Amino acid sequence: MAESRFERGSRILASIDGQGGQAVVDSLQDIAPELGNWIVEFAFGDVYADPTLDARQRELVTLGSLVTQGDTAPQLKVHIAAALHVGLSRAEVIQAILQTAPYVGFPRVINAVNLARAVFQNEDEAKVHEG
Amino acid sequence: MAESRFERGSRILASIDGQGGQAVVDSLQDIAPELGNWIVEFAFGDVYADPTLDARQRELVTLGSLVTQGDTAPQLKVHIAAALHVGLSRAEVIQAILQTAPYVGFPRVINAVNLARAVFQNEDEAKVHEG
Amino acid sequence: MAESRFERGSRILASIDGQGGQAVVDSLQDIAPELGNWIVEFAFGDVYADPTLDARQRELVTLGSLVTQGDTAPQLKVHIAAALHVGLSRAEVIQAILQTAPYVGFPRVINAVNLARAVFQNEDEAKVHEG
Amino acid sequence: MAESRFERGSRILASIDGQGGQAVVDSLQDIAPELGNWIVEFAFGDVYADPTLDARQRELVTLGSLVTQGDTAPQLKVHIAAALHVGLSRAEVIQAILQTAPYVGFPRVINAVNLARAVFQNEDEAKVHEG
Amino acid sequence: MAESRFERGSRILASIDGQGGQAVVDSLQDIAPELGNWIVEFAFGDVYADPTLDARQRELVTLGSLVTQGDTAPQLKVHIAAALHVGLSRAEVIQAILQTAPYVGFPRVINAVNLARAVFQNEDEAKVHEG
Amino acid sequence: MAESRFERGSRILASIDGQGGQAVVDSLQDIAPELGNWIVEFAFGDVYADPTLDARQRELVTLGSLVTQGDTAPQLKVHIAAALHVGLSRAEVIQAILQTAPYVGFPRVINAVNLARAVFQNEDEAKVHEG
């Protein structure tokens, strides 16, 4: 039987964001459950599902977008973690953020590298606890 | 003798943007020549010069940033052409633009794919004239 | 048989935007046909389909959003026409634009009322030609 | 005797925002008292005073504008409360926020529904304390 | 008899923008005359009227704001002309635009210096015709 | 021997931001040291170094830019302090923020005067401790 949009979206969401994306979707259940569905079905079931770009390439575009937009700290943290989860290195994530400097200036970039530091530290602490 | 920042920036600018980037720099000579120098030296001599990300990866970030920012049509056209110049396919450029839809909504994305169409058509016409 | 998301979206799109929305969707067929589908299925088939707000209320929110975002002239023209099409008066459309002045300042508002004038004039001319 | 702009603005501010708007105006007295006056006189005495749109319609436009602009959390909380105060239901407020998703993407919308949840909870707690 | 807000605003508008500001106000008469009044009364009669900053200082802030916001080309042209009208030199206007580069990146700055060139050329042509 | 870009940038950074700017640069050493260098060399060694505008004029432009951009609270606090450090009065800083109201609306301006109050209070407390 064919995979539904929701199933495809859930599978891709998990493969990209690990647990972070599903946590966002779950957190919306009490206030706007359709918003969670749209993120799964439209963002991941439709947009991310096209194989022309791989997950690493999609996260590079997404980092460029979120750093530039501003006022997206929670989403930027999820996607910095997602970028690492799909195989970009910490150095590549930092360089992706720095790449936006000529286009959006230093304030957005400074705030984004500070968020990256926090994500890296959370990861390090999680590994210590697991270890 | 060591390559200067300006020389390094000019070399990288040419390798990424082809003639489009230099045309922007040249166009600023009469009104704000230091701005042209900063683009060569800072954007290309400093930011793009780090080898951690390759030119294709940097253009994916840049497309994500420029689509999101808005009111950047001239720069977006230069960087759509640059993305093709460094080896991304037309399909990859379109997918990079579409990847921003969940993050910035449809208006920015519609306007950007319309710019991409114009860049592709310019390229096709240039090839006819060359042929 | 149940109406599909695409059928529901197409029906709602036509009821709200008249011919203007379908023209946008059609214009994307050659460059990014999935984008046209997403607009029909996600924006109109999912978001607009909820009956909690009626079409007039949704267009008031949409005008507030598009005026504020900036660099959305083509979309703003479509939605000014849509606002009239679903029954808002010209005076209500102008007041909706003016309502954003305390929140986004005068430049966005001046540019938006100039677009509204153009939409109103197009409509007047179309009526003369029909008459 | 005719109502002054300040009196008209104060009356409309109270009718729309309840105590939240006046609290903002009062909070500015020590640092920029003219800013408080401008909000009363220009935003409420001039803009909101036109009867073409009613208070519910104006709050729909305002929610569309504030969600879209970003970095407006304090103002968005005041206007979510104002929307409820003038008679929009919680479901209508959530739908107004969701309506912006096709135009500004998910990050702004996720952050806004999280603010709405907080405003609803504050209201519920206030009712318990009153009760 | 005391000068009204409208009279004060009109006087300051003329002193700062020369004919350009009044032309904007006049152009709004047919579509949203209250918007023209608000610009005169609120922007110029209230905000600009405070003597703490002089007209040159206010135009420096305004240039920083308009370059940064984006999609404000008509307003930026009016205020580049206004900056010259109140006594800033062409070199100071260009430097004011360049000063935003570290904060908003190159695209906004490139587009703004291109607008400045157009304003300077218009002025030069007007002088030739007057001469 | 000629002053290097880094030396010139460091000197100008200290003259404008006092200790606040260097603190930002230092804070980036562990996560993105080249970003700190770019701020010193490009922003201060190149952009601020041109003598056409003095430091007070540059801070007026910068305040206009940062208030308008939004999501720049840390940078706005540094530059409100910098504006005072180069000789603008508190009243001039507040007026510079208020000057953006007609161009970006009240939310950005309210948030910025609240940041200014915090900077002024920090300064007052520092003086008490020094005294």
UniProtKB/TrEMBL annotation, chains A, B, C, D, E, F:
Pfam families: CMD. This is Carboxymuconolactone decarboxylase family protein. It comes from the Bacteria. InterPro entries: 4CMD/NDH-1_regulator, AhpD-like, CMD-like. SUPFAM superfamilies: AhpD-like. Gene3D superfamilies: AhpD-like. Residues 33-117 form the Carboxymuconolactone decarboxylase-like domain.
